[in-house]
Specification:
- Helix 6 packs parallel to helix 9.
- The protein is built from 12 helices and no strands.
- The protein is 59% helix and 0% strand.
- It has 320 residues and is mostly helical.
- It has one domain.
Length: 320
């Protein structure tokens, strides 16, 4: 057994332990999550939790879709991606629908987040909100994998603006996620002004950013190193060691590797076969994943948001 295979087996064991530890909690959260999303569809709002503190009126006022919906959309997406890595989804059609649902729900959540950030200074003069999450970046990459290139570009533009405007929390702590955002921005022709922050021991991220469009013999070893880094940064080594994939979502789904390969394919660059245990299971997938169906619940949430003043184009024009 090779060293890479042994490392992957260790990752797989830890993943199974993680699933076993949190499965009951995940199922309970999903039940609450589905209930609250359905409540939003019916009422156009979500009831605040018992511990919620009443909010003072703001100008401009809070939109109905700003309250409690964003976190529910992210939870919905998280649960879909966790399911794609387990036995819960074992047929391609259901898997593809789940992946599309995850992308669409986080795209909506990012629009809500972008709007809230952009009006924060008007609501609270002299203050700045900087709480955009790096956890959205892999979901943007899903858009590339499912062939939703135009919508993924919109999401990438929003994330690049957040990075340029210093709106991300924990900047510099997630080299893989930052690499993925920067390569995606390069692919889409979007400018990022800030310098790339990476941990010195993880120079493969800086080298990949420089060489992701290089010939296959240069690119291939760097992508193998990224696979190794993905496994290393899937479980926390210590409290002082922040990691990119600590929430169980992407541990067995190397979205950044697949997305980089797909971006190379889309611009006509060849790639050699990647022999690494982390992505062997994904060779059976048809990339780009094609799903024309949007989860009915997310579609209903979107339509209800529209009825409550949500407008993607307006947010894009005013805040991008």
């Amino acid at each position: 057994m090779s060293e890479k295979t042994r490392s992957f087996q260790q990752v797989l064991r830890r993943w199974r332990l993680l699933v076993g530890k949190y499965k009951l909690s995940w199922n309970q959260f999903e039940a609450i999550n589905l209930s609250e999303l359905n409540e939003y569809v019916k009422r156009g709002s979500i009831s605040p939790p018992a511990y919620a503190v009443a909010m003072e009126p703001t100008n401009p006022p809070l939109m109905p879709w700003e309250l409690y919906l964003e976190s529910n959309l992210r939870m919905f997406a998280t649960r879909r991606i966790v399911a794609t890595q387990s036995v819960e989804i074992n047929d391609p059609t259901s898997r593809d629908v789940a992946v599309r649902a995850a992308f669409e729900s986080v795209l909506l959540a990012d629009f809500i987040d972008l709007y809230s950030h952009s009006v924060f200074g008007k609501r609270f003069p002299g203050r700045k909100l900087a709480q955009m999450t790096w956890r959205s970046v892999p979901f943007m990459a899903l858009g590339i994998l499912i062939g939703q290139i135009d919508r993924a570009k919109i999401q990438c533009e929003a994330q690049a603006k957040a990075l340029n405007s210093d709106l991300f929390i924990n900047y510099g702590e997630f080299p893989i996620l930052e690499l993925l955002l920067r390569i995606s921005a390069h692919f889409f022709g979007i400018k990022i002004d800030r310098n790339f922050v990476h941990i010195p021991m993880e120079d493969c991220t800086a080298l990949l950013l420089k060489n992701w469009r290089s010939p296959a013999d240069v690119f291939h070893p760097l992508l193998i190193s990224l696979c190794d880094l993905h496994m290393e940064r899937s479980f926390q080594q210590s409290r002082d060691y922040p990691i990119d994939f600590d929430d169980g979502i992407w541990i067995l789904f190397p979205v950044e590797v697949l997305a980089i390969l797909e971006m190379r394919r889309l611009i006509g660059l060849p790639s050699l076969a990647i022999e690494h245990p982390l992505i062997e299971k994904f060779y059976s997938l048809n990339i780009p994943i094609k799903s024309e169906n949007i989860d009915p619940l997310i579609q209903d949430v979107y339509l209800r948001m529209r009825s409550k003043g949500f407008d993607e184009q307006s947010i894009l024009l005013k805040h991008l």
